[in-house]
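Typical record is below.
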Amino acid sequence: MAEGEATVQDLARPISINQPAICRRLKVLEEAGLIWARTQGTARPHHLKPAAVKALQDRADNVLISRGKAG
């Protein structure tokens, strides 16, 4: 998804996780506001929300800095 959209099949192809497991994880990411999906026929291509991912990264960096564990 970092390079564009990806369907469940696209994500399942290179790894050994079944499609229902990937769907569950995508649902969590969507509920967290990190990705979004659109309906295209029978597929639902997923996309990252760059601003949300950046905000999560910044927050994680701040936690590590406050704990003295940043790079």
Observations:
- Residues 8-66 form a domain with the Arc Repressor Mutant, subunit A fold (CATH 1.10.10.10).
- The chain is about 50% helix and 10% strand.
